Amino acid sequence: GSLIEQLTTEKYECMVCCEVVRIVAPVWSCQNCYHVFHLNCIKKWARSPASQAEDGNSGWRCPACQNASMQVPKTYTCFCGKVHNPEWNRNEIPHSCGELCGKKRQCLDCPHLCNILCHPGPCPSCPAFVTKTCECGQTSHSVRCGQSTKIHCSKVCGNTLNCGKHSCSQVCHAGKCSPCQLTVQQVCYCGSNFKEVLCGTKEEFSDGFGNFSCQNICGKKLNCGRHNCTQVCHPQPCQLCPRLPQVVYRCPCGQTPLSKLLELGCVERKICTDPIPSCGKTCGKPLSCGSDEFIHTCESLCHEGDCRPCSHTSNIYCRCGFKKKVFTTFFPRPFLLPIAAITFMCDKRCNKKRTCGRHKCNEVCCVDTDHKCSLVCGRKLNCGLHRCEEPCHRGSCQTCWQTSFDELTCYCGESIIYPPVPCGTQPPECKKTCTRPHDCDHPVYHSCHSEEKCPPCTYLTQKWCMGKHELRSNIPCHLTDISCGLRCNQMLKCGMHKCKRICHKGECLIDEECKQPCIIPKLYCNHPCMAPIAAISIATKLTDLQLGDSVEISRLITKKEMKQARLQCDEECLALQRNRRLAEALEIDDNSDPFNIRSSGPKYSDLLKEDARKDLKFVSDIEKEMKMLVEAVNKGKHAKKSHCYPPMNRDHRRIIHELAQVYGIESVSYDNEPKRNVVITAVKGKSICPSNTLTSVLDKEMQSRPPPPIPHYKQTDKSSGNSGLSKPLKEEPVIDYFDVQD
Question: Where is the signal peptide (predicted)?
Answer without folding.
Answer: none
